[in-house]
Amino acid sequence: MQADRCDIGLIGLAVMGQNLVLNMNDHGHRVAVFNRTVSKVDEFIAGPAKGTNVVGTHTIEEMCGLLQRPRRVMLMVKAGAVVDQTIGQIVPHLEKGDIIIDGGNSLYTDTDRRVKDLAKAGILFIGTGVSGGEDGARHGPSIMPGGNAEAWPHVRDIFRSIAAKDLDGAPCCNWIGPDGAGHYVKMVHNGIEYGDMQLIGEAYQLLKDGMELSPDELSRIFGEWNRSELDSFLIEITAKIFAKKDDDGQPLVDKILDTAGQKGTGKWTAISALDLGMPVTLIGESVFARCLSALKDERVRAAAILEGPPPAVASAARKDFIENVRSALYCSKIISYAQGYMLLRAADQERNWNLKMGEIALMWSGGCIIRSVFLGDINKAFDRNPALENLLMDDFFSAAINKYQKGWRQTLVDAIESGIPVPAFSTALAFYDGYRARRLPANLLQAQRDFFGAHTYERIDRPRGEFLHTDWTGHGGKTASSSYNA
User: Fold this and answer.
1) At what angle do helices 423-435 and 181-211 cross, to 10 degrees?
2) Is 95 part of the annotated catalytic residue set?
3) Confidence (pTM)
4) Among 50, 62, 186, 263, which one carries the catalytic annotation?
């Protein structure tokens, strides 16, 4: 090892890349950097990285030539084709045993492919989820690495030194599993983030429209909620957002156009849920809510034509209404995480990743966007029962739902009577009532499928796995159709 060699190279000097580099430098790691637009390298070295040990390079070959072996190259570039193109540019300058790290929000199946393809050339690939935004990258993100396990010992110290600390004081970074496991866990994290944000938005609209509360009042309420079971980064920043004033002294939040963007990870989560047959309804509704928000002009036209109940301030006492909304938010949050963990469990069973569910909760408890005290409760649930099939079956979470569900239900009644859309609150309660139902109307559904398509059904008085077909009309045949379970 040469003293003037760099510990790691990083390609991609957008906001996340720059802040990760500065974080690494703060922790004693010498970083060589490159960016496709080379002028950004010079600007970074002369600006934010001035006075550090960061080394700027103008070609990938130059950067790779500065790295100690095994060479470690981290990509912070746009997911998709750009990652493959960049890998293609790096590989000619690497040797067997060198390591490529993708720190972007790549689709986990792309990571699966890259792990396998690069292994053929002797290159070790890690797909690494990084959460925390700009501030997290600079001061400590949650890091979720997975892929070729041979690479982990060579990046472990760097990653764990720059990571945030969890509720127990340990680094928010552990090896997730093989292939695309790291990016899959990050994808589900982002899906849950979609759900958290949608739930908070629905609570906001209920309080704003249902109680005519001002942003200043909302800031105070969310500040109080952040000292309750809802203590979290997103609740904390929401209180600050409501308090922020524009240059004219008016609340800035009221001037922001109500159309939400998205980068695709929530959609990927919903697609994976459908592929695995998991009813992750809340994340799905959160994705669709963003899609609906994007139809701004169409919604404005519809508002002039379509009728709903007349606007009315809730008749319930102010204190009771606010507490009911808080109950709905907390209960729905439990459902969202329960569904997210159902999806992780299903993917783990299909792919044999050996995910450590409690550890994942702790990794999310610091640095990342969904960090909260709530994640400590999830970790404790899996400590009590590592084979827990659903968070709702844990005593802590079932007790919380039982305690607060009256207010949750009343909130939905108030929303319906006022014409305030609450798709995430609603689907959370529908899932809860469906999950706790001993019997659902799927028996009728199966009868219908057998009637028109001979898809067969099982009987309650016969062993599971025995499929039957009925000639419902008296002139049908005895041949049954094939079927499959989602």
Assistant:
1) 110
2) no
3) 0.93
4) 186
